[in-house]
């Protein structure tokens, strides 16, 4: 099964790369997507979205309560209720998308367990991985996945390259009689 994680410095376009890969594939992708929340051009936090259902919530915000990380507070209620649940439900999809495995998400034991369950499955996965996390889950992903670093030079070409890898993986599995992809 194919598992790819993208990493890189903040703001380089990791989430955009993942979104474009999913757009290029004819697969049912499920999981989570995170996005910045801005007010008057200033980042106030991050939203979290269940890719399959479109359900959205707040991952972190300057005005939330919950574990503090920098200027943000992590909203464990939405991280667990939307994020962890979306990942668990992704077991029935062709491709699991996890945007992101980073310090905010790792504040939730429920989220960590959900990702571990997916890692123990046979599902193809495309993830965004925080570049310097020392968490055991992040270390496991670095060991088990092909990890690609997004930068200003390759970020426009990476979606096509990654999508081609998933298409190739799907064709190889069809030849072998496996059905990881639907």
Describe the structure concisely for a colleague.
This protein has 182 residues and is α/β, with parallel strands linked by helices.
Structural account:
There is one protein chain. The protein is of the alpha/beta class. The chain has 5 helices and 9 strands, in the order E-H-E-E-E-E-E-H-E-H-E-H-E-H. It has helices at 14-24, 76-89, 109-119, 136-144, 158-176, and strands spanning 3-7, 29-39, 42-50, 56-61, 68-69, 72-74, 95-101, 125-129, 146-149. The chain has a 9-stranded mixed beta sheet with strand order 5-6-4-3-2-7-8-1-9, with helices on both faces. The two termini are 13 Å apart. The model has no long low-confidence stretch (mean pLDDT 94).
Topology:
Layout lengths: L2 E5 L6 H11 L4 E11 L2 E9 L5 E6 L6 E2 L2 E3 L1 H14 L5 E7 L7 H11 L5 E5 L6 H9 L1 E4 L8 H19 L6
Parallel strand pairs: 1-8, 1-9, 2-7, 7-8
Antiparallel strand pairs: 2-3, 3-4, 4-6, 5-6
Helix pairs in contact: 1-5, 2-3
Rounded radius of gyration (Å): 16 Å
Q: Largest sheet, described in full?
A: 9 strands, mixed
Low-confidence stretches: none
Protein structure class: alpha/beta
DSSP helix fraction:
25-40%
Strand percentage lies at: 25-35%
Number of strands: 9
Key terms:
single chain; 182 residues; alpha/beta; 9-stranded mixed beta sheet; 35% helix; 29% strand
């Amino acid at each position: 099964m194919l598992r790819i994680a993208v990493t890189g410095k903040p703001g380089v376009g990791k989430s955009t790369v993942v979104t474009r890969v999913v757009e290029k594939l004819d697969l049912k992708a499920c999981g989570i997507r995170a996005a910045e929340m801005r007010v008057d051009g200033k980042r106030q936090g991050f939203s979290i979205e269940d890719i399959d259902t479109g359900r959205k919530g707040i991952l972190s915000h300057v005005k939330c309560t919950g574990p503090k990380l920098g200027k943000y507070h992590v909203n464990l209620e939405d991280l667990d209720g939307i994020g962890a649940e979306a990942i668990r439900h992704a077991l029935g999809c062709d491709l699991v998308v996890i945007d992101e495995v980073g310090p905010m998400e790792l504040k939730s034991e429920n989220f960590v367990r959900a990702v571990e369950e997916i890692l123990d499955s046979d599902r193809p996965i495309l993830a965004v991985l925080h570049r310097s996390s020392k968490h055991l889950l992040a270390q496991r992903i670095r060991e088990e996945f092909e990890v690609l670093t997004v930068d200003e030079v390759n970020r426009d070409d990476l979606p096509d390259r990654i999508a081609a890898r998933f298409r190739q993986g799907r064709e190889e599995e069809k030849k072998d009689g496996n059905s990881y992809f639907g």
